[in-house]
Amino acid sequence: MLIDQQTRKRLLETVAKRVIANEEELTDLDRAIGDGDHGANMRRGFEAVLAGVDELSAKSLGESLKGVGTALVMKVGGASGPLYGTLFLSLGKSLADDVSREQIAQAFAVAIEAVKARGKSDVGQKTMLDVFYPVLGVLREGGDDLAARLKATARLAAEKTIPMKAIRGRASFLGERSIGHMDPGARSSALMVDAVADVMEGIA
Predict the structure, then answer these.
(1) How far is the CA of 109 from the CAs of 94, 132, 198, in angstroms?
(2) What separation, in Å, do the N-terminal and C-terminal C-alpha atoms of the chain show?
(3) By CB neighbour count within 10 A (0-12 exposed, 13-18 middle, 19+ buried), where does 2 fall?
(4) Residue 98 pairs with which residues in a beta bridge?
(5) CB 187 within 8 Å of CB 158
(6) Which of 75, 117, 178, 188 holds its CA 20 to 30 A away from the CA of 85?
(7) pTM of the entire structure?
(8) pLDDT tens profile 9-50
């Protein structure tokens, strides 16, 4: 699968616009169990990506992803900036313009481990990892209707954080009171997966 400049631009724009469009939802989710700034922080980061999208997409896939990671580290506050920045920077180290599903899955697996190490967190602790791991499983499986299954898996995985008790992050300070709320990072992760899958459907 060749990720040419036009596709790189569409990927970056679709992800950025999807996150920005859902700022209010992310803010509401974070207001329930966090600082209430996840939506605004993510918007700020992806507005920076949009502002530089022509320059970013003119580079190789790896370098464009590293550029996204750098922008998120610099512009997104709280824990999300370093975590999402780590994800994109790690992906950028592994992915070339001509890439297979297997190579994407392997790069994503390495990136997830980098996020896991950066956040000192694991699956089941009500974080973005609770979306990333199920998505990785589907990506590794491949098969028909992959994009649709990735989207459905990400959405369901984010919903499954609702009954979880937060173990990591600011929400963990709430203890039992964190139960009953979707994790904002899980939701923003699902939005990104949804956006990437939409673009994948057009190039598959």
Answers:
(1) 11, 9, 21
(2) 8
(3) exposed
(4) 2
(5) yes
(6) 178
(7) 0.93
(8) 999 999 999 999 999 999 999 898 788 899 999 999 999 999
CATH topology classification for 5-203? 1.25.40
The DSSP code for 165 is: P
Positive/negative CA dihedral, 65, 68, 74, 80: negative
15 contact partners, CB below 8 Å, separation of at least 6:
46, 49, 192, 195, 196
> What's the token pair of residue 132?
């990333």
What tokens does 166 get?
Answer: 């937060």
Reduced to 3 states (helix: H, G, I; strand: E, B; else coil), residue 202 is helix
Question: What secondary structure does DSSP assign to 90-121, as a single string?
Answer: HHHHH--SB--HHHHHHHHHHHHHHHHHHHT-
CA 122 – CA 129 distance, rounded (Å):
7
